[in-house]
Amino acid sequence: MLPVRGRRLATLVRPGAGPPVVWLGGFRSDMRATKAEALDEWAAREGRAFVRFDYTGHGESEGSFADCTISDWLADAQAVIAALAPARPILVGSSMGGWIALLAAADVRPAGLVLIAPATDFTEALMWEQFPDEIRAQVMRDGVWQRGSQYSPEPTPVTRALIEDGRRHLMLGGPIDPGCPVHILQGMADPDVPWRHAMRLVERLPETGVVLTLIKEGDHRLSGPADLDRLVAAVEGIAPRGG
């Protein structure tokens, strides 16, 4: 457990060679999800360094999910990277983790980014802008709306603080240059992060060093055997062993 801002974050660290690979999970996901486990198996097989962790209020870490915002989870990622993977890591971000990876890149100077269905600006573009007026009113009046989830029997609290804090970190309104190669994996059958949203990000990234892989039948999870093979290949392509 890593102490961060008065709380303890759960971490798993596999020592190894090459630029350390850091897993940044999604909104309400955790470090033991299928894609993270697949990367850990690859790291063990190839002798690569791999770091994963749970954000505050996620998985095995302390804290309340409903009390946190993008600023909190970004600070978690920055603290983990500084403590456990300071040497120009490869950041692998899934969904919300893709946004966190892009935000963290400004200070981390990563060796590369691999983004899976990156939910850049999701609190605004994929939540607030899509909410009907009655849900917006409830969020503003009550401070929270309990959103049903297809991934969990429990609803997801969408708080006013999450929405308002997210506006401090919006990126899609201007150019985005993480200063490293970027490979995006995006399912075209993704109901949560539409593939056209990924295209908005691509349009903001530099003209060179960016690869977008569209999987026509791919859903949001991209956790099938072929998807996991693509993920490992994308990470290896960013920085091969010894690179």
TrEMBL record:
It is an enzyme of class 3 (hydrolase). It catalyses: mycophenolic acid O-acyl-beta-D-glucuronide + H2O = mycophenolate + D-glucuronate + H(+); S-hexadecanoyl-L-cysteinyl-[protein] + H2O = L-cysteinyl-[protein] + hexadecanoate + H(+). It comes from Methylobacterium currus. GO terms for molecular function: mycophenolic acid acyl-glucuronide esterase activity; palmitoyl-(protein) hydrolase activity. Residues 41-222 form the AB hydrolase-1 domain. Pfam families: Abhydrolase_6 (PF12697). This is Palmitoyl-protein thioesterase ABHD10, mitochondrial. Acts as an acyl-protein thioesterase that hydrolyzes fatty acids from acylated residues in proteins. Regulates the mitochondrial S-depalmitoylation of the nucleophilic active site residue of peroxiredoxin-5/PRDX5, a key antioxidant protein, therefore modulating mitochondrial antioxidant ability. Also catalyzes the deglucuronidation of mycophenolic acid acyl-glucuronide, an active metabolite of the immunosuppressant drug mycophenolate. The keyword Membrane does not apply. Its EC number is 3.1.1.93, 3.1.2.22. Keywords: Hydrolase, Transit peptide.
